[in-house]
Amino acid sequence: MITITSLRKGFGARQLFRGADLRIGARDRLALVGPNGSGKTTLFEMIIGLQEPDDGSITVTRGARFGYLPQATDELRGRSIIAEVRSAAPAMAEVGHRLDVLTNELAEVTDPAERDTLIREHANLQERFETLGGYSVEAEAREICAGLGFDDADLDKPTESLSGGWMMRVALAKILVSAPDALLLDEPTNHLDLESVRWLEAFLKQFEGAVLLISHDRDFMNGFANRVVEVDDGLLAAYAGNYEAFVAQREMRALQAEAAAANLKRRTDQLQLFINRFRYKKTKASQVQSKIKLVERLGTVDVPETRRRAMNVAFPPAPRSGRVVIELENVGFSYGDKRVYTSLDFAIERGQKVALVGPNGAGKSTLLKLLAGALQPQDGDRRLGHNVSVGYFAQHQIEALDPQKRVIEELESAVAAGVFVKSRDLLGRFLFSGDDINKRVSVLSGGERSRLAMAKILVSKKNFLCLDEPTNHLDIWSRDALEDALEDYDGALVLITHDRHLIRSIADVIAEVRDGVVRAFPGTYDDYLEKIGEEVLVTAPAARTTTTTAAKERRRASAAERQATTRHRNALRRVEAELETVHDQMRAMEERMADPGFYTSEGDVPGFMRAYSDAKERIGRLEAEWDALTERG
């Protein structure tokens, strides 16, 4: 379907492609990978004709139709969501629109003759609508919208009411409805939640045309790709299989190339030794010339670079917090008339790494904001544990970066008091090198802004991280680096992500958010999937067993355990509250003692000093009790 031959493309002195070749078949499932800035999006734009190659050619089968989803889309205005999606099938959409107009006119017309004319036209249009497959397209459009997270009740809302992320979903739905011969999708999962990602993966598996995908989501590529093409040093290197197969093959190619290069070096070293030894001997002149020509013919072996430049991230040791990091008790929250939570109880403990999952609109982002303190409960309590400091990473945090500041200034504005940071070294670990650190924030790419926002969290030394899609805009190598850092992070964290690989790698608790209820599942993401799979199977009344004595005993034991946990938490809260009170008293005493006039006053100085000594002893006892409670778990 698409043949790329000797492709060359550059911008100024920077060459993106230098003689690249590739053939893409009509049923290929192709994932295009490479570091940010390597030319992946430029390649897509050349395929669909938005850019021209400097040299070489891109040949497309005559009549082939492409559906292209860029990373950003123009705002779509003037239609409802469903009408906008239906418009991707132009002939059907025009007839459907006329049918809607006639239906409205029929409801208002009073003249019998005019009404008969409208009825005949309506019947003719309806027949044409059915012939064009209008009703099946309508059903398919609604099914695709549902898969991408839209509620059916919201499909008649105007597109102007949507945020940028939801507008991208509309653009994706239009492309899928248009049923092109090839889909070109540039980071399609960036604006989707986890369930929508899984739906899109299943849709692409069944799609009858070719799929060309730019993605940094390992699991997504593993789910449907049958070829991986890497943009590597200006060339296009194709590998059979999914992303895992690509990694293995690439490593094998590198090992083979290294072995071939080592063998070649041994051979050329031997030849060079002979040349150097007999260069000036007349009797060996012909042999020397022969070996010089042989060295030239042998040439060199290119060894592929197996390690890409990526972030070198390591979070500093998290300050020790109380056992319970944060607790929401009896929390209620609404957006206007829409109730999200009623009497929500949820807690996160020290060291836990929690992934929030669930359908779109269930309240995951609201819960994360409540935990981070970006939203305050309208009912109930939000309580931070002892010595807890919160770091919050979300899209609006990235947008909140000061566009007028330079990169190094923006980082240094976040450095916590008493923390010494080598700003240039730290920014280098986040891939800001040389003059990059003096760039204005306004000129940074999405990936660069994400890295800068993450660097700001790093220097603030937080022991509770709330992360909303932290891997968006990062390439695979930088995602791997961030994943390693989060695995090693010794504080508590809670995150929302559509990256299943990240969830599998770091989460030890899955919190499912559904219909205003949050259920915690200790264990891995695969444990959670297995558990909910069992629950789906056990749905019919016939599948339920009668209550046994053993089951009652388990419930009693569970109730006793919950009571013990509640008593333990209450004891911790009491100790932490007393510690804060006594620390406040001591700080007030120390301020008085710092005043030289205190010691010459007529007050009871000895009594004051005894009270200060008692407060110190009390703090020691409370800290010992706190340590014992936290060690007990």
Question: Topology of this structure?
Answer:
Layout: E1 2-11, E2 14-24, E3 29-33, H1 40-47, E4 55-60, E5 66-69, H2 81-86, H3 90-108, H4 112-131, H5 134-147, H6 164-177, E6 182-186, H7 194-206, E7 210-214, H8 218-224, E8 227-232, E9 235-240, H9 243-278, H10 285-298, E10 324-335, E11 338-349, E12 353-357, H11 364-372, E13 379-384, E14 390-393, H12 395-399, H13 407-412, H14 423-429, H15 446-459, E15 464-468, H16 476-488, E16 492-496, H17 500-506, E17 509-514, E18 517-522, H18 525-537, H19 549-593, H20 605-632
Parallel strand pairs: 3-7, 3-8, 5-6, 6-7, 12-16, 12-17, 14-15, 15-16
Antiparallel strand pairs: 1-2, 1-4, 8-9, 10-11, 10-13, 17-18
Number of helices: 20
Task: Report the sheet-strand fraction.
Answer: 15-25%
Low confidence ranges:
537-552
How confident overall, as mean pLDDT? Answer: 81
Number of strands: 18
N/C terminus separation: 62 Å
How does the helix and strand content classify structurally?
alpha/beta
Report the sheet with the most strands, covering strand number, pairing sense and barrel closure: 6 strands, mixed
Q: Share of helix among residues? A: 40-55%
What Rg do the Cα atoms give?
Answer: 32 Å
Strand order, sheet with most strands: 5-6-7-3-8-9
Categorize the overall geometry: flat
